[in-house]
Amino acid sequence: GMMLVALAGPGMNLALAFIGALLLGIFAHWVGEPADGSAAAFLGVAIVGAGLLPLAFTTGATPLAVVALLLIVEGFGQGLLNVAYTDLVTDTLPEHDRGVAGSLALLTRTVGVVSGASVLTALHAHAAAAGFMAGYQFAFIAAGGGLLAALALSCLWPRAWFAR
């Protein structure tokens, strides 16, 4: 009994990002379908970065509610990005090829997730010589900060996001 409770806590923490993505799906009709999918993708990336970067500065003493909120925000951004990305990819092909486009969107997203997890694991391992928390902090700064920095850099070409 006690062992299950000890394992359920971390499992629930990890599920919070997926809950955020689920919430996006539930409330997406309130947001409405974005007129510009690339602007929605931009917003999704910004929200993911805004959720990940502060996680780097959490510790064992950080209230669970704060960590939960950040994970839900990150998941919400992921949900928005996934919907916008799929729409952008499927809109590039004629309607009769939408199944192929949807499959390609899922494949490229999966490759991105696996690659991202591998890179973050390597970043954590690189910095973990100074301790687990040092690796954790470095990985989340790289993830959230890297996303936000890349997004800021991409604003040098605003037409990529906002003028389609």
* Terminal Cα span: 56 Å
Largest sheet: none
Quaternary structure classification? single chain
Q: How helix-rich are the residues, as a percent range?
A: over 70%
Q: How many H/I helices?
A: 6
Number of E strands: 0
Approximately how much beta-strand content do the residues carry? Answer: under 5%
Shape: globular
User: Topology as H/E string?
Assistant: HHHHHH
Mean pLDDT: 81
Rg is 18 Å
Q: Which ranges are low-confidence, i.e. pLDDT below 50, for 5 or more consecutive residues?
A: 1-8
Structural class: mainly alpha
Please give the structural blueprint:
Blueprint: H1 2-31, H2 37-55, H3 64-90, H4 98-127, H5 132-154, H6 159-162
Walk me through this protein's architecture.
The chain is mainly alpha-helical and 164 residues long. It has 6 helices and no strands. Helix 2 (37-55) runs antiparallel to helix 3 (64-90), helix 3 packs antiparallel against helix 4 (98-127) and helix 4 (98-127) crosses helix 5 (132-154). 23% of the residues are buried.
List keywords for this structure.
single chain, mainly alpha, disordered N terminus, globular, 164 residues
